[in-house]
Amino acid sequence: MRITIDQDVCIGAGQCALTAPEVFTQDDDGFSALLPGREDGAGDPLVREAARACPVQAITVADD
């Protein structure tokens, strides 16, 4: 799995970090970021739900 966050689209709503806190966090400016070592989703079943929860669809999840 490959997760990308479009930083130009992200508004910092934080829904991803609330939905999948083992994979997503918010940076110092409040925008979405992946936790170190979790760039592949770490098998977390909530990653796709976190992408769907994003109000501006800034997160893309692709299967490798």
Structure notes:
A hairpin with a 5-residue loop joins strand 2 and strand 3 (32-34). 19% of the residues lie in helices and 22% in strands. With 64 residues, it is α+β, with helices and mostly antiparallel strands. It is built from 2 helices and 4 strands, in the order βαββαβ. Strands 1-4 form a two-stranded antiparallel sheet.
Give a summary of the structure in a few sentences:
By secondary structure, the protein is an alpha+beta fold.
Kindly list the characteristics that best describe this protein.
4 strands; two-stranded antiparallel ribbon; alpha+beta
What's the structural blueprint in terms of helices and strands?
Layout: E1 2-5, H1 15-19, E2 24-26, E3 32-34, H2 47-53, E4 59-62
Antiparallel strand pairs: 1-4, 2-3
Which structural class do you get from the secondary structure elements?
A: alpha+beta
Count all strands and give the number: 4
- Shape estimate: globular
Q: Helix content range of the residues, please?
A: 10-25%
- SSE string, helices as H and strands as E: EHEEHE
The strand order across the widest sheet is 1-4
What distance lies between the first and last C-alpha atoms, to the nearest angstrom?
A: 5 Å
Q: Main β-sheet: number of strands, strand sense, barrel status? A: 2 strands, antiparallel
Q: How many H/I helical runs?
A: 2
Strand percent estimate: 15-25%
Low-confidence stretches: none
The pLDDT mean sits at 96
